[in-house]
Amino acid sequence: xxxxxxxxxxxxxxxxxxxxxxxxxxxxxxxxxxxxxxxxxxxxxxxxxxxxxxxxxxxxxxxxxxxxxxxxxxxxxxxxxxxxxxxxxxxxxxxxxxxxxxxxxxx
Length: 107
Known about the structure:
By secondary structure, the chain is mainly α. It has a domain at 16-81: Orthogonal Bundle (434 Repressor (Amino-terminal Domain)). Helix content is 50%, strand content 11%. The longest helix is centred in the first third of the chain and has 23 residues, at 16-38. The termini are far apart.
Protein backbone atom coordinates (compact mmCIF):
# COMPACT_ATOMS: atom_id res chain seq x y z
CA UNK A 1 0.00 0.00 0.00
CA UNK A 2 1.38 3.42 -0.96
CA UNK A 3 1.62 6.24 1.56
CA UNK A 4 -0.96 8.98 1.26
CA UNK A 5 -0.07 12.58 2.02
CA UNK A 6 -2.67 15.17 2.99
CA UNK A 7 -2.67 18.96 3.24
CA UNK A 8 -3.48 18.73 6.96
CA UNK A 9 -4.50 16.05 9.48
CA UNK A 10 -8.12 17.13 8.96
CA UNK A 11 -7.88 16.24 5.27
CA UNK A 12 -7.31 12.59 6.22
CA UNK A 13 -10.56 12.35 8.19
CA UNK A 14 -12.96 14.87 6.62
CA UNK A 15 -14.15 15.92 3.19
CA UNK A 16 -12.05 18.61 1.50
CA UNK A 17 -14.39 21.54 2.27
CA UNK A 18 -14.69 20.74 5.98
CA UNK A 19 -10.98 19.99 6.25
CA UNK A 20 -10.02 23.31 4.64
CA UNK A 21 -12.21 25.24 7.08
CA UNK A 22 -10.75 23.31 9.99
CA UNK A 23 -7.20 24.02 8.79
CA UNK A 24 -8.00 27.75 8.49
CA UNK A 25 -9.49 27.80 11.98
CA UNK A 26 -6.43 25.99 13.37
CA UNK A 27 -4.10 28.51 11.71
CA UNK A 28 -6.14 31.38 13.16
CA UNK A 29 -6.21 29.84 16.64
CA UNK A 30 -2.42 29.48 16.60
CA UNK A 31 -2.00 33.06 15.38
CA UNK A 32 -4.35 34.47 18.03
CA UNK A 33 -2.77 32.41 20.81
CA UNK A 34 0.72 33.53 19.71
CA UNK A 35 -0.42 37.18 19.73
CA UNK A 36 -1.78 36.80 23.25
CA UNK A 37 1.55 35.33 24.39
CA UNK A 38 3.62 38.03 22.63
CA UNK A 39 1.49 40.71 24.31
CA UNK A 40 2.30 39.09 27.65
CA UNK A 41 -1.38 38.59 28.49
CA UNK A 42 -2.51 35.91 30.91
CA UNK A 43 -5.66 34.03 29.90
CA UNK A 44 -7.74 36.09 32.34
CA UNK A 45 -6.45 39.39 30.91
CA UNK A 46 -6.87 38.18 27.32
CA UNK A 47 -10.45 37.18 28.11
CA UNK A 48 -11.23 40.68 29.38
CA UNK A 49 -9.63 42.31 26.33
CA UNK A 50 -11.48 39.99 23.93
CA UNK A 51 -14.76 40.15 25.85
CA UNK A 52 -14.98 36.38 26.29
CA UNK A 53 -14.63 34.05 29.26
CA UNK A 54 -11.27 32.70 30.41
CA UNK A 55 -12.49 29.21 29.50
CA UNK A 56 -12.92 30.35 25.87
CA UNK A 57 -9.28 31.48 25.81
CA UNK A 58 -8.29 28.11 27.25
CA UNK A 59 -10.30 26.29 24.56
CA UNK A 60 -8.61 28.39 21.88
CA UNK A 61 -5.13 27.73 23.32
CA UNK A 62 -5.87 24.00 23.48
CA UNK A 63 -6.93 23.80 19.84
CA UNK A 64 -10.63 23.17 20.40
CA UNK A 65 -11.41 24.86 17.11
CA UNK A 66 -14.77 23.17 16.67
CA UNK A 67 -16.10 25.50 19.38
CA UNK A 68 -15.30 28.64 17.37
CA UNK A 69 -16.73 30.23 14.26
CA UNK A 70 -14.56 32.11 11.80
CA UNK A 71 -16.55 35.25 12.67
CA UNK A 72 -15.68 34.91 16.35
CA UNK A 73 -12.00 34.47 15.53
CA UNK A 74 -11.97 37.52 13.26
CA UNK A 75 -13.64 39.53 16.05
CA UNK A 76 -10.82 38.42 18.37
CA UNK A 77 -8.24 39.57 15.83
CA UNK A 78 -9.96 42.97 15.63
CA UNK A 79 -9.82 43.34 19.42
CA UNK A 80 -6.12 42.42 19.38
CA UNK A 81 -5.44 45.25 16.92
CA UNK A 82 -5.48 43.44 13.60
CA UNK A 83 -7.57 43.87 10.47
CA UNK A 84 -8.59 41.00 8.24
CA UNK A 85 -9.36 41.34 4.55
CA UNK A 86 -10.44 38.82 1.95
CA UNK A 87 -9.31 39.26 -1.64
CA UNK A 88 -11.35 37.46 -4.25
CA UNK A 89 -9.85 37.40 -7.74
CA UNK A 90 -12.01 37.74 -10.81
CA UNK A 91 -13.26 34.43 -12.19
CA UNK A 92 -10.83 34.47 -15.09
CA UNK A 93 -7.72 35.46 -13.09
CA UNK A 94 -6.93 31.91 -12.02
CA UNK A 95 -5.34 32.99 -8.74
CA UNK A 96 -6.69 31.74 -5.41
CA UNK A 97 -8.55 33.91 -2.90
CA UNK A 98 -6.38 35.34 -0.14
CA UNK A 99 -7.03 36.22 3.49
CA UNK A 100 -4.69 38.94 4.72
CA UNK A 101 -4.21 39.88 8.36
CA UNK A 102 -2.51 43.21 9.02
CA UNK A 103 -1.72 45.28 12.09
CA UNK A 104 -4.33 48.01 12.46
CA UNK A 105 -2.97 51.57 12.22
CA UNK A 106 -2.09 52.88 15.67
CA UNK A 107 -1.98 49.42 17.30
